[in-house]
Specification:
- The complex is a heterodimer of chains A (about 400) and B (about 100).
- Chain A contains four helices and 25 strands.
- Chain B has about 100 residues and is mainly alpha-helical.
- Helix content of chain B is about 50%, strand content about 5%.
- The chains are: A mainly beta (about 400), B mainly alpha (about 100).
- Chains A and B meet through helix 1, strand 1, strand 4 and strand 6 of A and helix 1 and strand 1 of B.
Chain lengths: ~400, ~100
């Protein structure tokens, strides 16, 4: 209903702007099963351009996608999670004045309007999963400080935009350039608070045609809370690099090490990115590629199912860019596994949908588990890895259901 | 809704050619994140919410004075929180008392 109203406005307004009002809180609604210790007590809320999402924090807004949306490959824009670092965040952007500035170690500095981005560069598309580094942090044991996300700081969308390497080529990067920094319109209220700026190696960008500046998400302009009018897309890598409300790109001749690159967003410099629980790593490196993960969206935890009556299990699997080759489920706590049918392949960075029918053989509790394998045989472990910032979680997930 | 219409009319009235603006209004901080009432809760609320809503506090794992001192120090040293030494002490003590490990 809200969405219908908004479209009505947009139709009336033509190319003028639309005012998107904050929705009301869905009072009295529990986020999910009340026995999930991470989500218990967290309200469902409705923000502009969004459906009911699970509140993590109000200011800056951080909203988590309910698991039910992961029964399909593409996450609807209105259900896509929201994560910010500093406040205030942009609440209005005028495309008449918004410009993307490209400068630094380049021969031809650029100032691009959104129309420039749309028309002066080849239009490319990539379907890619966007996952917060700290997704599922709330499930770490021992627990760690930070945003106590459940599993919903993740989404998958079709992104359309201009290749970052085409933009750098147009700006003509000078010899000696090392990294590129990306800054968004979200600016802290106090100058002492570190501005959210991220960096990528020039070589990383030039070698990867899928790193794009996206101005379209699932066929629509980006929702404000997902980075309108343009955000960086770094397929396969954690969302921390996917800078929202992008407005400044600078080419530099050194490695950028301000707060959100160092000490922020770093993992232990070990093969697993992990350390023994409750210990501190000796060396750290920036977090980058996502490991394999898979989820069961349905049935939900605690669901009551009938003995002998088929249950449809659905969910998604993804990894950091090798693509999902195989998904398996177990209905006996991981003793035996069977391969399940996969949905269509939307590309190696995308969620891969899976679906299978399972029939409860007898009464009582059944533990349903899922695991996936990517293109180079990587999978998921039975024991969770641990690190102090609560990143990289990819343990095998399960759902307990009751048959009777 | 009335506000939306008023704003829309204003935007149309200004009507610069090709202008396209998106604007949202954020809801206020959610009540579920209210701090537990106790000695120091007022100071903690007033100071901390200058930069962020208090759900950042209430969702953290319970911790002893050492954990909360570390958090408050990080807010001052890394995020530049304008806290006096006296307020920092009050806040640390309040957090350790109200959001400490189960005894």
């Amino acid at each position: 209903m809200r969405d219908y109203t908004r479209r009505g406005f947009l139709a009336t307004a033509g190319r003028a702007g639309a005012l998107l009002l904050a929705g009301s809180t869905a009072l009295g609604q529990a986020a999910r099963a009340a026995d999930d210790p991470v989500l218990a007590g967290r309200p469902l809320v409705r923000y502009p351009e969004k459906t009911d999402l699970i509140l993590l924090t109000s200011r800056p807004p951080q909203l988590e996608t309910p698991m039910k949306y992961f029964d399909r490959a593409i996450t609807p824009n209105e259900a896509f999670f929201v994560r910010y670092h500093v406040f205030p965040i942009p609440t209005s952007v005028d495309l008449g004045t918004w410009r993307l500035k490209v400068h630094g170690r380049v021969d031809r500095p650029l100032t691009l309007s959104l129309d420039d981005l749309r028309t002066k560069f080849p239009r490319v598309r990539v379907v890619a999963a966007n996952q917060c580094s700290g997704n599922s942090r709330g499930r770490f044991n021992p627990r760690v400080l930070g945003g106590q996300w459940g599993d919903g700081a993740i989404g998958n969308a079709e992104w359309v935009g201009a290749r970052m390497r085409d933009i750098l080529s147009a700006a003509s990067v000078r010899q000696g350039a090392v990294q590129v920094t990306f800054d968004g319109l979200d600016k802290p209220a106090f100058p002492t608070v570190p501005d959210f700026v991220k960096s990528l190696d020039v070589t990383r960008i030039m070698a990867d045609p899928d790193v794009i500046v996206a101005y379209q998400m699932n066929g629509q302009p980006l929702p404000m809370l997902n980075g309108f009018p343009a955000r960086l897309i770094v397929p396969g890598w954690y969302a921390t690099y996917w800078v929202k409300h992008l407005f400044e790109i600078e080419v530099i001749d050194s490695v950028f090490e301000k707060f959100w690159m160092k000490p922020g967003y770093r993992i232990p410099d070990t093969p697993c990115g992990c350390v023994e629980p409750a210990t501190v790593p000796t060396r750290t490196v920036p977090i980058t590629r996502m490991p394999v993960r898979s989820f069961i969206a349905t049935p939900e935890p605690g669901a009551r199912v009938g003995v002998g009556q088929p249950v449809t299990m659905k969910g998604i699997a993804f990894d950091g860019g090798y693509g999902i080759n195989e998904v398996q489920i177990s209905s006996d706590s991981g003793v035996t596994w069977r391969r399940v049918p996969l949905g269509s392949d939307l590309g190696r960075y995308s969620f891969r949908e899976w679906s299978v029918t399972w029939t409860p053989p007898g009464p009582g509790q059944h533990r349903l588990m899922v695991r996936a394998f990517n293109g180079i045989g990587e999978s998921q472990g039975t024991r969770p890895l641990w690190n102090p910032p609560g990143y990289l979680r990819n343990v095998i997930e399960y759902v307990d259901v009751q048959a009777g | 809704m009335r506000i939306a219409i008023a704003w829309l009319l204003a935007a149309l009235a200004v009507g610069s050619a090709g202008a396209e603006e998106k604007r949202i209004i954020l809801p206020p901080d959610h009540e579920h994140a209210r701090l537990k009432v106790g000695p120091g809760s007022d100071v903690t609320h007033t100071q901390c919410q200058l930069c962020h809503s208090t759900d950042y506090i209430v969702m953290q794992p319970p911790g002893d004075a050492k954990q909360w001192e570390g958090v408050v120090t990080k807010m001052i040293k890394v995020f530049g929180a304008p806290l006096s030494e006296a307020d920092a002490k009050i806040i640390t003590e309040y957090l350790a008392r109200s959001y400490g490990p189960p005894s």
